[in-house]
């Protein structure tokens, strides 16, 4: 079965269990090119597992994952690693930078691993650090930086090779509220400027006054919200309810991520 042509990333009937405990129970999901899709739910709802399955880090026990009409779930481990290196970006809830490397070297890692020249990789990495307002940290190693600065460097590393899809697993979890908002805005703006598709997992992406302001200015942080509970997609809310914006692309308003 081929993936829908208008979805750059698509999953059908995903099941996954850890030590016999279900984490995903029949989740299906499509993400359109250039879309920023927020996946929300409480801890243990399956958000991280969903992102790991869709990025090829793990294979589902049952179900299919397609990327640009290619079946990720049937690829070998080596092929999935190449896919993640060249076409996907990943941001964890903690920066996970290499402490011995400077900020620009950390940001440039995907380019260097792809075989790009040292000067080209440095120039591109420093450009992304500038765009994310941490250009002055380029020559500094992670232990000397603040958590928010390290997380921005991790965002730069995930974006530096212009991935087709960016997976962000609770990327602002360890940050203070102001830093969360800044990092989310920087990530969203960078992804939209490059036309990068984003799957963003988090706890609470409810609509509030900031969401309405963002919608009015066209600067919303997420286009659509999908809710998970106990490894399943939550039932579509009633039309006209505040949560109805998460039901899908049909008439869905753009949403802001609460921080």
Explain what the structure shows.
The protein has 259 residues and is α/β, with parallel strands linked by helices. 32% of the residues lie in helices and 23% in strands. It contains 7 helices and 10 strands. The strands form 2 sheets. Strands 6-7-8-3-9-10 form a 6-stranded mixed β-sheet, with helices on both faces. A 4-stranded antiparallel β-sheet has the order 2-1-4-5, with helices on one face. Helix 3 packs parallel to helix 5 and helix 5 (147-159) runs parallel beside helix 6 (177-194). 43% of the residues are buried.
The strands making up the biggest β-sheet line up spatially as 6-7-8-3-9-10
Q: State the secondary-structure class.
A: alpha/beta
Main beta sheet: strand number and arrangement? 6 strands, mixed
**Spatial separation of the terminal alpha carbons:** 39 Å
- The helical percent reads 25-40%
Radius of gyration of CA atoms, rounded to a whole number: 18 Å
Mean pLDDT level: 84
Total helical segments: 7
- Percent strand equals 15-25%
Count of strand segments: 10
Low-confidence segments: 205-219, 236-259
Helix-strand topology string = EEEHEEHEHHHEHEHEE
Net shape:
globular
């Amino acid at each position: 079965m081929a993936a829908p042509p208008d979805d750059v990333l698509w999953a059908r009937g995903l099941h996954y269990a850890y030590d016999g405990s279900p984490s995903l129970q029949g989740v299906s999901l499509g993400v359109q090119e250039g879309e920023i899709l927020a996946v929300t739910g409480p801890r243990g709802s399956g958000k991280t597992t969903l992102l790991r399955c869709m990025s090829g880090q793990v294979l589902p026990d049952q179900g299919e994952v397609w990327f640009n009409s290619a079946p990720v779930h049937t690829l070998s481990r080596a092929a999935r690693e190449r896919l993640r290196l060249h076409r996907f970006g990943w941001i964890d809830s903690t920066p996970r930078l290499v402490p011995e490397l400077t900020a620009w070297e950390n940001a440039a890692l995907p380019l260097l691993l792809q075989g790009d020249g040292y000067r080209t990789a440095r120039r591109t990495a420093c450009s992304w650090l500038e765009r994310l307002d941490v250009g002055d940290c380029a020559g500094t190693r992670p232990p000397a930086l603040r958590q928010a600065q390290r997380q921005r460097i991790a965002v730069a590393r995930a974006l530096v090779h212009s991935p087709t899809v960016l997976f962000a697993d609770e990327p602002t979890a360890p940050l203070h509220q102001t830093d969360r908002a800044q990092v989310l805005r920087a990530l969203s703006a960078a992804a939209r400027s490059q036309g990068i598709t984003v799957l963003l997992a988090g706890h609470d992406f409810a609509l509030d006054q900031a969401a309405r302001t963002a919608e009015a200015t066209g600067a919303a942080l997420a286009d659509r919200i999908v809710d998970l509970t106990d490894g399943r997609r939550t039932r579509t809310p009633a039309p006209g309810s505040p949560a109805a914006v998460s039901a899908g692309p049909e008439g869905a308003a753009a949403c802001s991520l609460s921080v």
